[in-house]
Amino acid sequence: MTNILGIETSCDETSAAIVQNGRIVLSNIISSQIDIHKKFGGVVPEIAARIHLNVISQIVDQALTTASMNFNDINSIAVTCGPGLVGALLVGVSYAKTLAFVLNKPIIAVNHIAGHICANYLENDFEPPFICCVISGGHTNLIYVSDYDSFEILGRTRDDAIGEAYDKVARVLGLNYPGGPAIDNLAKLGDMHAIKFPQALPDGLDFSFSGIKSSVINFAHKNELTDELKKDIAASFQFSVAQIVLKKTFAACKLKSCKKIALAGGVASNSYLRKIFEIECQNQNCKLQIPKNIFCTDNAAMIAAAGYFCGQNAGLNLNAIPNLKLE
């Protein structure tokens, strides 16, 4: 029985969790900074780092208390070392190294994207091989997971991440940050076929979202943004984006002769994306795994799981690597 303390501070969530054997979540405490960054329309890196520093000890203590454990019950400490905001990452890495030194516990370095992938192992028996579509505010990747510690990137965004496009479209529509949930909710009230927005890079497995983002912004600037038109813009934008993600994910499955698909990342909590993937997987007889919404956004449970399945043993010279690659 292995109990891993996970620590996540890559962006604007301070999180600590205790996960047993990579799958059983004993605690998962998340302190979000969304309300603080909302007035700026996005994450301010220096503010994020300072808030992480102020709350991280309290969050770790809450994770232990919720799991009815103390530090003696922990076998190792897993921490996100990249990719992410360098100041935010440094808070988590420094705290984890301090704990490891004081407690004489092993420290495990975790790639944040691997964490999102491993969220699919939490509270179920899902296992490789599978195609994972990682969709978040900072990442858009199609990854073939052939084994727990083996990742092959088949496609990636050439410009904006999908979540970034959502945020920028939401801003031009006058919606609150973060844009993903706001557009998801507004789109339910609109006509997804009202406006035809372009789908860049229709062939291959790479993504491009800057074109559709610019198209939506230009359309919004040329038309009077009534409440009804905003609903149709949100629905049509979401439909166009979702169709290209769906098409490329199944193309990756065909390439690898794989009948298992997983979604990961904050945008994986989008209700429309989840619905169309469920329908298409039923139609094509594919197994679909999507984490619970709480495990889609940044959280430490996924980092603890990744520490168990694919993390790298590290020493006290571990550093934050803001542009850390997965492969």
CATH topology of the largest domain: Nucleotidyltransferase, domain 5
| Number of E-state strands | 11
Largest sheet: 6 strands, mixed
CATH architectural type of the largest domain: 2-Layer Sandwich
Helix content: 40-55%
Characterize the structure shown.
The protein is of the alpha/beta class and 327 residues long. The chain has two domains: 3-120 and 295-314, Nucleotidyltransferase, domain 5 (2-Layer Sandwich), CATH 3.30.420.40; 127-291, ATPase, nucleotide binding domain (Nucleotidyltransferase, domain 5, 2-Layer Sandwich). The chain is built from eleven helices and eleven strands. The chain has helices at residues 34-37, 45-66, 86-103, 112-118, 162-172, 179-187, 210-222, 227-256, 271-283, 293-296, 300-309, and strands at residues 3-8, 13-20, 24-32, 76-82, 107-111, 130-135, 140-147, 150-156, 260-264, 287-289, 312-314. It has a six-stranded mixed beta sheet, sandwiched between helices. Strands 8-7-6-9-10 form a five-stranded mixed beta sheet. The protein is globular. The two termini are 29 Å apart. The model has no long low-confidence stretch (mean pLDDT 96).
Topology:
Layout: E1 3-8, E2 13-20, E3 24-32, H1 34-37, H2 45-66, E4 76-82, H3 86-103, E5 107-111, H4 112-118, E6 130-135, E7 140-147, E8 150-156, H5 162-172, H6 179-187, H7 210-222, H8 227-256, E9 260-264, H9 271-283, E10 287-289, H10 293-296, H11 300-309, E11 312-314
Parallel strand pairs: 1-4, 4-5, 6-9, 9-10
Antiparallel strand pairs: 1-2, 2-3, 5-11, 6-7, 7-8
Helix pairs in contact: 2-3, 4-11, 5-6, 5-7, 6-8, 7-8, 8-9
